[in-house]
Design goal:
The complex is a heterodimer of chains A (about 130) and B (about 150). By secondary structure, chain A is mainly beta. Chain A contains one helix and eight strands. Classes of the chains: A mainly beta (about 130), B mainly beta (about 150). At the A-B interface, helix 1, strand 1, strand 2 and strand 5 of A face helix 1, strand 1, strand 2 and strand 5 of B.
């Protein structure tokens, strides 16, 4: 009896799954700030350098990448944790960050972005004079 | 499934939870019954497994891992991959997000019975470890001629 119920509830789910198949993966990130700026690290395994797009548009930072793995012909999936071939995530930047001098590096599927602060926003050490 | 319990920030975790419940609803379970060694979805590293008549291919999405730290072993049809991912944490910095996995990991995978443990190759590229294991000849499909 319960099995029969399951069968009837399957259909709408199947339709939804179809639409969602190319939904992008939101990569896991670490973000930290030090005196000079913000560093963002993102896990994007399977993305080669030419399949990575980092965009800074006004105050929005967007990272996007395509997984590029050559699969053997006629491969049947047995198990899949990763079900999309695209990563996408975006962040908004605040004014004190210099979006034009973002530096990006990609190594072993880890993207590292360095977003420096504008010079006038870097903290200055104030020397205390004695005597 | 446990959506209300965790306030995980990680999109990967959300994705896995969603897929898990969808898979459960679609197939009752994963394409093969949940193995005794199966782990919760969202465990690092995510894994995809595919098969062809000639070989079984395992992809571990383990970015930022030193390939030398990886320990891959196979016993009959049990593949074990262990490794460690280290991060350099700047003590003076303010962390806003800390979603990435850190530390040691070990995954044990049950592969189809007919894999040949003597014919295993592994390569690490762009943060993905690809292990391919050949199948025994007897398992490959053969043409049967009608006399």
């Amino acid at each position: 009896m319960t099995e029969k119920q399951d069968v009837t509830t399957q259909e709408p789910k199947a339709v939804r799954e179809d639409k969602d198949t190319e939904r992008a993966i939101r990569p896991a990130v670490d973000i930290f700030e030090d005196a000079g700026g913000i560093t963002l690290t993102a896990d994007m395994p399977g993305v080669a350098r030419d399949r990575l797009v980092v965009q800074v548009d006004a105050d929005a930072l967007s990272i996007e990448g395509q997984i590029d793995i050559s699969l053997p012909e006629g491969m049947q999936p047995l198990y899949a944790d990763v079900r999309s071939t695209r990563y996408q995530r975006s962040f908004s930047l605040s004014k004190e960050l210099d979006g034009e001098s973002v530096q990006a590096s990609l190594k072993d599927g880890v993207l590292t972005l360095r977003i420096p602060k504008r010079a006038e926003h870097r903290p200055r050490k104030i020397e205390v004079r004695t005597g | 499934m446990f959506g209300s319990l965790g306030s995980f920030e990680s999109g990967l975790l959300d994705e896995f939870r969603r897929l898990e419940s969808e898979m459960d609803q679609l197939f009752g379970a994963a394409p093969w019954p949940a193995g005794i060694r199966a782990v919760a979805r969202g465990t690092f590293p995510p894994i995809n497994i595919g098969s062809t008549p000639e070989q079984v291919d395992v992809y571990l999405f383990a970015p930022g891992v030193d390939p030398k730290s990886l320990d891959i072993s196979i016993q009959h049809n049990l593949l074990t991959v262990a490794g460690e991912r280290k991060r350099s944490i700047d003590q003076a910095a303010n962390y806003y997000r800390n979603e990435r996995f850190e530390g040691e990991f070990r995954r044990v995978l049950t592969l189809p019975e007919d894999v040949d443990p003597d014919k295993v190759e592994a390569a690490y590229r762009d943060g993905v470890l690809h292990v391919s294991i050949e199948r025994r000849a007897a398992a490959k499909p053969r043409q049967v001629k009608v006399q």
